[in-house]
TrEMBL record:
Domain N-(5'phosphoribosyl) anthranilate isomerase (PRAI): 4-196
PANTHER family attached to this UniProt entry: N-(5'-PHOSPHORIBOSYL)ANTHRANILATE ISOMERASE
NCBIfam families cross-referenced by the UniProt entry: PRK01222.1-4, PRK01222.1-7
Residue intervals passing through the bilayer: none
Family assignment from sequence similarity: Belongs to the TrpF family.
InterPro entries: Aldolase_TIM, PRAI_dom, RibuloseP-bd_barrel, TrpF_fam
Protein name: N-(5'-phosphoribosyl)anthranilate isomerase
Name of encoding gene: trpF
Length: 208
């Protein structure tokens, strides 16, 4: 079953919409970003997320103690690392880890195997911030790799109109979206619903 992660949520309405539409993960961005939230804000918003939807905290080259403090206060289920964190650092977190890899060429995927994580997020090359750039990478690169038995989350340039194609081409465990469900840099409730519906439809089409 293809999982869906809606990232960069900053208000109650967007969270309730994503939950109601069937998202599997909700991401809070704690790294520098236009979608950044404070620990206190995330803890308040987390109250609207039921136990079956997993809370993810997104960090970039953050100190271990800061990550663990925020995870405790917010009740995070997963830690997503979007920086230059080492395999050893990932093991120190003490919570399930999603490690992001920025993909510009097939060589960028060579070090995926050195990480032991719960999910491996393949994203487009980093822009001003690590992630949320709204650009896709060449999905065909993934076909030359033998890591697809790992839990792959696909990100980068996804939206309701192309997520079905992405699922069928890459066959990921899940898909991750942020800017693809925004209008004028603000989460769009209709786009959130449409994305989740399309992703779940792509999953069914893939099975058929």
């Amino acid at each position: 079953m293809v999982k869906v992660k809606i990232c960069g949520l900053m208000n109650r309405e967007a969270i309730l919409t994503a939950v109601d539409a069937g998202t599997d993960f909700i991401g809070f961005v704690f790294a520098q970003s236009k979608r950044q939230v404070t620990k206190e804000k995330a803890a308040e918003l987390a109250k609207y997320i039921p136990p079956n939807v997993k809370k993810v905290g997104v960090f970039v080259n953050e100190k271990l103690e800061v990550i663990q403090d925020i995870a405790r206060e917010v009740g995070l289920d997963y830690i997503q690392l979007h920086g230059d964190e080492s395999p050893a650092f990932c093991k120190e977190i003490g919570l399930p880890v999603i490690k992001a890899f920025h993909v510009a060429s097939k060589e960028d995927l060579d070090n995926v195997a050195s990480y032991e994580c719960d999910y491996y997020l393949l994203d487009s090359p980093a822009g001003k911030y690590r992630g949320g750039n709204g650009e896709k990478f060449d999905w065909s690169i993934t076909k030359e790799q033998d890591f697809l038995n790992k839990k792959i989350l696909l990100a980068g340039g996804l939206h309701a109109e192309n997520v079905e194609e992405a699922i069928q081409e890459v066959n990921p465990t899940g898909v991750d979206v942020s800017s693809g469900v925004e209008t004028d840099s603000v989460k769009d409730l209709d786009k959130i619903r449409a994305f989740i519906l399309a992703a779940k439809k792509g999953e069914r089409n893939g099975i058929i």
